[in-house]
Amino acid sequence: MRKFFGNKAFYKATLAIALPIMAQQFVTSFVNLIDNIMIGSVGSLALTSVTVANRVYLIFNSTMFGICGAAGIFIAQYYGAKNKEKCQKILNINLVCGFLVAALFVFALLIVPRQLMEIFSSQPVVIEESLKYLQYAVLTYVPFAFSFSIMMALRAVGINKIQLLVGVITVATNTTLNYMLIFGHFGFPVLGVQGVAIATAIARFVEMFIYMVILLRKKHMFHFSIHGLLHLDMSLICSMVRKAIPLTVNEILYSLGLTMIFLSYMRCDESLISGISVVDTVMQIAYIVFGGLSSAISILIGNRLGANEIEEAKTNSYRLLTFGVMIGIVMGTTLIFVAPVIASFYNVEDIIKQTIVSLLSIKSILLPIYVYNVCIFFTLRAGGDTFSTMLMDSGFLWCAGVLLSTLLSVFFDIPLVMLYAIVESCDLLKLFVATYFFKKGRWAKNMTISHEVVY
């Protein structure tokens, strides 16, 4: 039993890392839910348009997650090896890469916005509303890349309370501005979906400004240096690229896979697609365990690997896996009971409310399985086994979820809820794939001394 359950000190250390991240993600996700309800109160057209427009942002966010994830692997292990200078150099590389990726997405959205929206919707009225949203939403990409790079670096070394404070300020700004700009309160014009985009852009710049101040004050191990950004460590770049390529490719393929599945849902019944948006937003709250546990895994496993304490890292992995599944069971059970209450908040048709309840019920039942797979994903990643993470994550998604959803939506007249249940149930099969890679143990390596590339 000791293999699966830790002592008080272990759980205290885990919660000290996880709770601030969970709190931050809860605040952010809860406010996103409130924003989602605000947009939904305008009408299903507004909700669908924002959902469609944000598909590009999802791909961008996944790309950033891959790049920052690779940086986080090295930062966590070098921090465990007590090499803070290398940690700073990795952050510098991450900031430059993040800016370049954001600039690429901004360029595409400025040059061919309509063509991008036509990929995700065939309805002219939805496309027009999406373009109104994108006019201002494009301003969020660069500040988000900057903030996200710093946030993930701080998270990799266990500095989490700052992120919670920044998150509270950011979401408070975003929610207040949404209330004023969507509905035209306090003398502001009624801007609808454009108001959502403007509010988000302002909030992102506020967030970036706060993180810039944090780095410039140099009160923590990271700082901001123009010289450091212009003189990057090429040997570190090469090491990071080896890990970043499969991880970033995985995130891009995964987000593209989700987009393909989204298109399959659109083929089933585009009138119910706003229900998917609601469920995605609600599940962000349920996924707070995702952020907290991923940080705990990165630190409690990554630091131990960096300190060359391999067996302790393996023990931590089993304990965190058990802990995650237990939390997933509690959260999934709770979500089943609150699903009808959540649906009642939305000013949408009854059929959409019924769809929301059905989709949330499916998600909640499978939540413990999802958390199990997530814990293994981050365990493999903490040890640099990024190729295995790509196979079990995006590889499995395309071979199972994308293939099934495409075939069923194209060749069969299948209801949206049934297709959703089939796609989500693929996580049950993924559990066996994840367990196989976990048991192989190729992730249990110290990269700070071996410099071994895991393929």
From TrEMBL:
<feature type="transmembrane region" description="Helical">
    <location>
        <begin position="91"/>
        <end position="113"/>
    </location>
</feature>
<feature type="transmembrane region" description="Helical">
    <location>
        <begin position="57"/>
        <end position="79"/>
    </location>
</feature>
<feature type="transmembrane region" description="Helical">
    <location>
        <begin position="244"/>
        <end position="265"/>
    </location>
</feature>
<dbReference type="InterPro" id="IPR050222">
    <property type="entry name" value="MATE_MdtK"/>
</dbReference>
<feature type="transmembrane region" description="Helical">
    <location>
        <begin position="133"/>
        <end position="157"/>
    </location>
</feature>
<dbReference type="GO" id="GO:0006811">
    <property type="term" value="P:monoatomic ion transport"/>
</dbReference>
<keyword id="KW-0406">Ion transport</keyword>
<feature type="transmembrane region" description="Helical">
    <location>
        <begin position="418"/>
        <end position="438"/>
    </location>
</feature>
<feature type="transmembrane region" description="Helical">
    <location>
        <begin position="395"/>
        <end position="412"/>
    </location>
</feature>
<comment type="function">
    <text>Multidrug efflux pump.</text>
</comment>
<keyword id="KW-0813">Transport</keyword>
<dbReference type="GO" id="GO:0005886">
    <property type="term" value="C:plasma membrane"/>
</dbReference>
<feature type="transmembrane region" description="Helical">
    <location>
        <begin position="365"/>
        <end position="383"/>
    </location>
</feature>
<dbReference type="Pfam" id="PF01554">
    <property type="entry name" value="MatE"/>
</dbReference>
<protein>
    <recommendedName>
        <fullName>Probable multidrug resistance protein NorM</fullName>
    </recommendedName>
</protein>
<keyword id="KW-0472">Membrane</keyword>
<keyword id="KW-1133">Transmembrane helix</keyword>
<dbReference type="InterPro" id="IPR002528">
    <property type="entry name" value="MATE_fam"/>
</dbReference>
<feature type="transmembrane region" description="Helical">
    <location>
        <begin position="164"/>
        <end position="186"/>
    </location>
</feature>
<keyword id="KW-0050">Antiport</keyword>
<keyword id="KW-1003">Cell membrane</keyword>
<feature type="transmembrane region" description="Helical">
    <location>
        <begin position="192"/>
        <end position="216"/>
    </location>
</feature>
<comment type="similarity">
    <text>Belongs to the multi antimicrobial extrusion (MATE) (TC 2.A.66.1) family.</text>
</comment>
<dbReference type="InterPro" id="IPR048279">
    <property type="entry name" value="MdtK-like"/>
</dbReference>
<dbReference type="GO" id="GO:0015297">
    <property type="term" value="F:antiporter activity"/>
</dbReference>
<dbReference type="GO" id="GO:0042910">
    <property type="term" value="F:xenobiotic transmembrane transporter activity"/>
</dbReference>
<keyword id="KW-0812">Transmembrane</keyword>
<feature type="transmembrane region" description="Helical">
    <location>
        <begin position="318"/>
        <end position="345"/>
    </location>
</feature>
<feature type="transmembrane region" description="Helical">
    <location>
        <begin position="285"/>
        <end position="306"/>
    </location>
</feature>
